[in-house]
Amino acid sequence: MFTGLVEGLGEITAIHSLGNDLRLDVKPLFTFENPIIGESVAINGVCLTVEKAENHILGFYASHETLMCSNIKLLKNKSLVNMERALALGARLGGHLVSGHVDTLGTVISLENNGNSKIITIQFDNEFAKYIIPKGSVALDGISLTVNACGIDYLTVNVIPETWKVTSIAKWNIGQKINIETDMIGKYILRSQFIEENKTQKSKIDENFLRENGFFI
Length: 217
Description:
The protein contains 4 helices and 12 strands.
């Protein structure tokens, strides 16, 4: 579990293709104390497991499923990524609950100045619109942000100078693909409603159905 509060940037130092999967080496550009083999680290908001930790380089494995639903497959040598270690129990939850399981990719369609801040608009598949609400939370490339406004296939966020300085957002450009993880709590609420609605629906299997399909003579 993560918070969406990025601890620092990492630089991709190597990418190794393994058929449909890949391994990537990342050099944290900040103090990353005592890395542990097997621990979870969010890379651009994607929960990956540390496989090696040698000479200040961390190695991760990304499966085909991970590559298909995230921008990990688009990374190259020297790409900068957002990094966050897993949340420790009892630590402050400064952002929001982030699982590291990306829902979909979005596309940057607008970058505008707003005083010292930036207004960024992301377009995405309208299938995920039901999970996005104004003033709700969203994780973009692992960064916890508040939704300013949203429509059927877009959302806008306001990025303050501090976030701009310590994350990869400063490198974003029009057309860039961004990992989107929608609010976990909202997804559970909608799923619960779906289950309850389907519980109340009358089953189509009744005596007439069974007779029409040859179960009764």
